[in-house]
């Protein structure tokens, strides 16, 4: 199994200390968090996209570019790029630039997003989100794969003989499809023969398993080899301690604080409290043995090769503690237990560096 750390850059008062970071402090926290993830052996770091309080993640390509400058190995993900509201020309340009500046470490996770506040900001209705996503993605693929593109559609002005610059550094920038609530996203991924990333955050396992199963069924329908269907999945919030009782006690204030926010309420999570989520949901809170057992249980249901976790909301010292515990007690066990075909090769720039002859 491979491992990604991600952040939505949520900036709310700390549930234990009451401290609120300034925007600048939060940005610096994210840069340090990403560098620590690389140091500890995580495979990828992701930044989500949101357009409203309490999130500061309105510009993932800018943040990921800053992370690229401070790291050298870790892959850079968008978790997710809200393509349903974005101009594909701008996306093609911004992320091709990031692809170059990161030396080919970029991978996009696209989706329609789960915060309805962004629709009026960008001029579409919530009812149009799926049609908009499909059209914009079809155009984005053409812009990255073709030159002299002529195109006409509903959600932006026509293009005549356009070649976006720069061209991507990678031969083909990998794209995952974020999956949270609808078979329309899994259908789009299966049609294009591309991997999915299940959010696996707010609801019981059965809801997300049904979407993953649909993806695999439609994958075969479109004639793809079943063994090539790749799934990633979130794991919700993380909190490890020597005992499960200690982890629950320490994490409870953070859990309650986050689930009282309006952005959390929008997701209509059915869990009545932290204990219910631990027993019946995706949150990873407990001893290392408990968390490993839970991840293995979800893997049996999903067959996922990549797991993403978040330590958003914790104090900076607790973020470090949790990531160090996860890297020491969880990652080695799951790398051995669960094989992965994902990210087994070095990024293109790393390969070139190793082959390059030094100039003397």
TrEMBL record:
Pfam family, one: Bac_luciferase
InterPro entries: Bact_Lucif_Oxidored, Luciferase-like_dom, Luciferase-like_sf
Source organism, top-level taxon: Bacteria
SUPFAM superfamilies, A to Z: Bacterial luciferase-like
Keyword terms, alphabetized: Monooxygenase, Oxidoreductase
Cellular component, GO, one term: cytosol
Gene3D superfamilies to which the protein is assigned, alphabetical: Luciferase-like domain
Gene Ontology molecular function: monooxygenase activity; oxidoreductase activity, acting on paired donors, with incorporation or reduction of molecular oxygen
UniProt name for this protein: LLM class flavin-dependent oxidoreductase
């Amino acid at each position: 199994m491979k491992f990604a750390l991600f952040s939505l850059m949520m900036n709310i008062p700390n549930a234990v200390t009451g401290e609120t970071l300034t925007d600048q402090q939060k940005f610096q926290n994210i840069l340090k968090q990403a560098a620590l993830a690389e140091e500890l052996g995580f495979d990828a770091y992701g930044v989500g996209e949101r357009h409203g309080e309490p999130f500061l993640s309105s510009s993932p390509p800018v943040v990921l570019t800053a992370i690229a400058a401070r790291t050298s190995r870790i892959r850079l993900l968008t978790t997710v790029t809200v393509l349903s509201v974005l101009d594909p020309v701008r996306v093609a340009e911004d992320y091709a630039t990031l692809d170059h500046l990161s030396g080919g470490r970029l991978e996009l996770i696209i989706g329609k997003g789960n915060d309805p506040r962004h629709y009026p900001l960008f001029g579409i209705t919530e009812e149009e989100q799926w049609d908009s996503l499909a059209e914009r993605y079809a155009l984005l693929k053409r812009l990255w794969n073709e030159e002299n593109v002529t195109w006409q559609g509903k959600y932006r002005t026509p293009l005549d003989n356009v070649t976006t610059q720069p061209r991507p550094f990678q031969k083909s920038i990998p794209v995952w499809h974020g999956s949270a609530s609808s078979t329309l996203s899994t259908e789009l991924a299966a049609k294009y023969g591309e991997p999915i990333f299940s959010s696996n955050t707010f609801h019981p396992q059965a809801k997300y398993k049904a979407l993953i199963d649909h993806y695999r069924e439609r994958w075969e329908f479109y004639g793809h080899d079943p063994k090539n269907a790749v799934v990633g999945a979130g794991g919700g919030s993380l909190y490890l301690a020597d005992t499960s009782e200690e982890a629950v006690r320490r994490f409870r204030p953070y859990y309650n604080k986050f689930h009282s926010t309006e952005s959390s309420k929008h997701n209509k999570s059915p869990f009545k409290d932290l204990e219910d989520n631990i027993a019946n949901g995706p949150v990873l809170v407990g001893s290392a043995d408990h968390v490993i057992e839970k991840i293995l249980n979800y893997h049996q249901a999903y067959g996922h090769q990549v797991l993403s976790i978040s330590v958003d909301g914790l104090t900076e010292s607790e973020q470090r503690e949790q990531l160090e515990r996860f890297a020491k007690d969880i990652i080695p066990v799951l790398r051995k237990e669960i094989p992965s075909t994902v990210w087994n090769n070095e990024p293109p720039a790393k390969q070139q560096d190793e082959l390059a002859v030094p100039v003397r």
